[in-house]
Amino acid sequence: MALPSDEVIRERLAMIEALAKSDRRVRVLEAIGWPREVEERFFAGGAEGLPEVTYEVDRDPLNERVAALDAAEQSLEGDDPVTVWMRSTVGSMRDASRMVLALGTAEFSRLSKELYGGPRTRFHGGGERNIDLAHHVIERLRPHGTDEATDEECELLDAEALAESLRQRVAREYPSMVIAVVVDPEATAKVVAGSTRVRVRADATFTPWEADALWHHEVETHALTGQNGAAQPEAGFLRVGGPRSTRTQEGLAVFTELHHHCASIERLQRLANRVLLVDMAEQGANFVDLYRHLVGQGATPREAYLDAQRVCRGGLVTGRAPFTKDTVYLAGLLDVQAFLSAVVREGFRDEMELLSCGRIALEDLTALVHLRRRGILQRPRYIPAWLRRWRTLVPEFAFLSFLDTVALGRVQLRYEELIAAATEV
């Protein structure tokens, strides 16, 4: 179907930008955050009782915003890729408001599953589910033999050391990017990142590869895409993305960790285990059940609290109503890896750069290609390192795209004897 005229597209983009600016308070992840005192009370009580969390929601303005976004979505008529993208964008803004309105209820969890999927959501209509991927990753990562080879002991970075390393790296690699890195004693997670500020929890420590991973994940993906979106003259709303972009954004962030070889065994295990935690909560496990399960698996009490909190925030601490966002990290990684394997090739560099033009979903790219060709969407201001190294990226995926056609089950059979011998040792 033919695209609308440039004039109509620009009018619609201006309407969406006005809607995005009309209420900057609708940030789901900020709204569901637990204050630090909730954590302190939990441990002061011997880590026995369910956390007591309350959410303050200003309902009237949010209900008015939902109505305005409904009307805006209905006004966007057409089935062309650009109009479909615009409707989806407005719908995602509405979904964020709906989630905030449902905080602390089972409805929040239902909306979460509708928007992010859940542990038993299937991949693109196939038979495989998120939880199957999680189990596969855990199985491949667990020790299958006894190795004499070990890693050298590494010196941990404290919060200030991590913050200073991130500041220096921003100054060196993106000198014009304005982003504050601060040590925050009130931060509820080890690192909390937005487009212009990264907060590091004051009592947190980090391995060198964890620090590298945080750079690629938080700064060179999330902050970078947010700032690129804000810099778009006619589509500044790309700075936020909304719930619909979360799967792609988190998948892209984890991809960069893997691509730069800083996603550790522990990191991938934790991402996979979080899918299982969401499934446990859906089956009825409460916050304390999740916490005890994690401690029993060897997590420190603080780590166990933070991961159980991720699953229960926004929903119910009593079980059966979790926040399902943690199921998107591995699912999004699979999406991004498959997409790049299919699409990265010489001659598509401009299109691939659009991945970093803002906080987008993979399905947005067709519309964004059209807007770029018309001069309505600008080239991203900042390009992440993995995309800047185009001459080494294309050969990698040229090879991987054929490897995907090889039946790896047959290859594994060829090495069964080696696997058996290594396992026996």
Describe what this molecule looks like in 3D.
With 425 residues, the chain is mainly alpha-helical. The protein has one domain. Helices cover 58% and strands 4% of the residues. It has 20 helices and five strands. The chain starts with 5 loop residues before the first helix and ends with a helix.
Which labels suit this protein?
two-stranded antiparallel ribbon; mainly alpha; 4% strand
- Straight-line distance between termini: 63 Å
Tell me, briefly, the overall form.
globular
Mean pLDDT: 95
Low-pLDDT regions: none
Structural domain count: 1
Secondary-structure content class:
mainly alpha
What Rg, in angstroms, do the CA atoms define?
A: 22 Å
**How many DSSP H or I helices?**
20
Binned strand content: under 5%
Helix content: 55-70%
Order of the strands making up the biggest sheet: 2-4-3
Order of helical and strand elements: HHHHHHHEHEEEEHHHHHHHHHHHH
- How many beta-strand elements? 5
